[in-house]
Amino acid sequence: GGNHHQTKHTIAPMYFPPGNNVWAAEAIKKAVKISVIANGSLNTPEIIEGAIEGEKADFVSLGRPLYADPSLPNKMLEGRPEDIIPCIRCNDGCVDKSRRSGQSVQCTVNPFLGFEDARKIVPAAKKKNVAVVGGGPAGMQAAIVSALRGHKVTIFEKRKLGGALIEASIPDFKADIRNLVKYLSTQVEKLGVEVKYEEASPKKIAGGEFDAAIIAIGSLLADPDIRGANKPTVSDALAVLRGEVKLGDNIIVVGAGYVGLEVSLFCAEQGKRVACLEVRENPYEEFERGTAEVMQERLEKQTFTMHSGRLLIEVLDKSVIVVDRFGKKEEIPGDSVILATGFKPQMEFMEKLSSLSEMPVFAVGDCVKPRKIFDAIHEGYGAGRSV
Q: Are 21 and 37 in contact (CB under 8 A)?
């Protein structure tokens, strides 16, 4: 399915459709008399069964899906597909972290991988009434582990379970994340975790009903110090993904991190002309290599322009003013401006709760520091084991 120089095929990211090499197995199977094994992004029971039952292959080879859940085959045999931890093909723990820092193989969605002794889930010595504030990935994971240990758990979530993964999973090229939201919310339900769809307050949590609290309220959009950022033509990336904004045909996206590039692709694949501004010279430096290649390839097929090494200094009615590192100013036209300039933590809830109560309080995920799904899941798992 490729070689070391084509990792986008051998370890396909979520920007590729799943089962990306099944077509090749099917073609080979028609031409040979021996068994054929399909591989590549076979990350759901439906795709696995489709390859076998559709006679496209005789066997399947699984790599990353077994990192995510080593019990995947058994759970399929037992008719429990909803209990399979889904590989989301993020390539973060299994590929990128080892490549960048030499760490051992880990998994975003399976904190147990590689730590099977150190991170065992054991029954709690004393059963507690635990409040989890926030129903994103960190909060749901914390609730799941806490419940598995025997605690009574209540999640407070002001909209619906999923947190920022709700917006992250809206583009079809991020559909793998929908599987993760479904898995986590299903486990929350099966374990009897109570979910209260309301906004909690430190005073309510400290009121005496709970013995411990885990704060997982996520991050807030950063407030960029940009002249004209309050104009009606300016919106934030999350609102755009939710479909709350009417966009023009010529769009300027400010910021080329994961959120900025993904909202750029989301808009460009809807037929918009997109210009993306990024202060860094290499916008793809935080991406895993194969993931970056596929993102670039998809963007290059659209009407898309990257303006790297540019700092936005002002938004006008039909354009923006940017400056490069040499101080040269440039005006870039656009009907709509989408801000993807990052997020900021929000620790005020935990600080206020800690001042009101002596109960153990843990903060996890983006409310501590905005990062990736890996950090949210792993910190939630750790808090669930510690509470």
A: no
Question: Does the structure show a pLDDT above 90 at 293?
Answer: yes
Q: Give Cα separations from 201 to 205, 206, 317 (angstroms).
A: 6, 9, 40
Contacts of 118 (CB under 8 A, 6+ apart): none
**Inter-residue contact 93 to 84 (CB < 8 Å):** no
Burial of 185 (C-beta count, 10 Å sphere; 0-12/13-18/19+): middle
For residue 7, count other CB atoms closer than 10 A to its CB.
Answer: 19
The per-residue pLDDT for range 49-107, each reduced to its tens digit, is 999 999 999 999 999 999 999 999 999 999 999 999 999 999 999 999 888 878 889 99
Name the token pair of 349. Answer: 């809830």
Give the model's pLDDT for residue 97.
87
How many whole angstroms separate alpha carbon 284 and alpha carbon 286? 6
- Torsion 227-231-236-240 (CA) sign: negative
pLDDT at 92: 95
H helices of 149-256, where?
165-168, 176-190, 202-205, 237-241
Task: Give, in order, the Cα–Cα distances in Å from 132 to each of 69, 152, 236, 256, 380.
Answer: 25, 11, 28, 32, 10
pTM exceeds 0.90, yes or no: yes
